Amino acid sequence: MTRLCRFNDNRLGLVEGDRVFDVTPALDVLPAVRWPVPAVDLLIAHLAPVLARAAALRAGAASLAVADVRFLSPVANPPKVIAAPVNYLKHQAEAIADGGRNFARDVKTIEQYGLFLKSSTSVIGTGEAVPIAFPERRTDHEIELVVVIGKGGRAIARDDALAHVAGYALGLDITVRGPEDRSLRKSLDGFSVIGPWLVTADAVPDPDALALRLDVNGAPRQRANTRDLIFDVRRLIEYASTFYTLNAGDVLFTGTPEGVGPIAPGDLMRYEIEQIGAAETRVVAAG
Ligand code: MN
């Protein structure tokens, strides 16, 4: 079980308890690449040799307090950011009850919507801040379990799906409400928060039984469990891979449960997923 992070000025770290061990020289095992670069995240595509080198470096590594480092996304260059809409029954119900007022569209099911893609430029780490670009519109938090694909493929069978997972992370799928396509409203800079670290898949035997929670300024907003996913993690991988070829480093936002709500500059989101970790992320004004 390993918690691997990218922090500060693109340092590589192993997280143990409340310490981050700097194992940046493990990146030396990554191959040099030339244009056209492969459509993978280089670290995730070579995760096993990086982890082996990192483990060897651990004994002599300097460490910092978790509280003192700035976590960047553990996946630096995801080839695709795939996301699931309305994938919890109670969130589907709250979206329907809202009558389209904030969602401004008929609410369908994940079977009808399928999946959508977010821009890779929307990805930040939990130690960065979410910028609000349209303060006159409602912008919502959505906590989600993020799955990081380790082994690519297409038409992946449900029973093989978890063998394609490198690990898991916390995710925030930040959203401007309104009538435009999801791929526009959810792709602003800083709208895909991933981290604080990658927990390797061996540490999470059942991703479909994890409690998740999110508070804003100390007030509870979202409380749920991934057991209530409509498409569970295996189904999402199977389904996504029938449309997209999955590559190492693709990230999959699995959908948000009920309790989504607005955020504004100055807010502090604190969020946690069982067996993965906890994080705090600040909301700021853009620009
Ligand atoms: Mn979402």
Question: Mind sketching the topology for me?
Answer:
Elements: E1 3-7, E2 11-16, E3 19-22, H1 42-45, H2 47-57, E4 63-65, E5 71-72, E6 81-83, H3 89-97, H4 110-113, E7 116-118, E8 123-125, E9 129-132, E10 139-141, E11 143-149, E12 165-173, E13 175-176, H5 182-185, E14 192-200, E15 211-216, E16 219-225, H6 233-243, E17 251-253, E18 261-262, E19 268-273, E20 277-285
Parallel strand pairs: 6-17, 8-14, 9-20
Antiparallel strand pairs: 1-2, 1-5, 1-14, 2-3, 3-4, 6-7, 10-13, 10-18, 11-12, 11-17, 12-14, 15-16, 15-19, 19-20
Please provide a written account of the structure:
The structure is a single chain. The longest helix has 11 residues, at 47-57. The protein has 287 residues and is of the alpha+beta class. The chain folds into two domains: 3-72, no CATH class; 81-285, Fumarylacetoacetate hydrolase, domain 2 (Alpha-Beta Complex). It is built from six helices and 20 strands. The strands form three sheets. Strands 1, 2, 3, 4, 5, 6, 7, 8, 11, 12, 14 and 17 form a twelve-stranded mixed sheet that branches. Strands 9-20-19-15-16 form a five-stranded mixed sheet, with no helix packed on it. A three-stranded antiparallel sheet has the order 13-10-18, with no helix packed on it. Helices cover 15% and strands 33% of the residues. Manganese (II) ion (MN) is lined by residues 83, 142, 144, 173, 253, 255-256.
